[in-house]
Amino acid sequence: MKKPRRTHDGAFKARVDLESVKGEKTNAQIASEYGVHTNHIGQWKKHFLKELPSLFSDTRKREEKENEAYIT
Question: How does DSSP assign 26-59, residue by residue?
Fold first, then answer.
């Protein structure tokens, strides 16, 4: 019997990403502490570092407004 697939919210991923970016622990240590696979940590960290510069740019706000226009 298969286990149900787990989903993790953004806050959980952010906590794991911050642990990984700090570099105080290995991905294996973080994975065992949070109960996730090391591959997930690597994927989340890659996405986190890719999106980090856009957090402080005006283009992100522009894109959000465009997305809101499509939704409404």
Answer: -HHHHHHHHT--HHHHHHHHHHHHHHGGGGGSHH
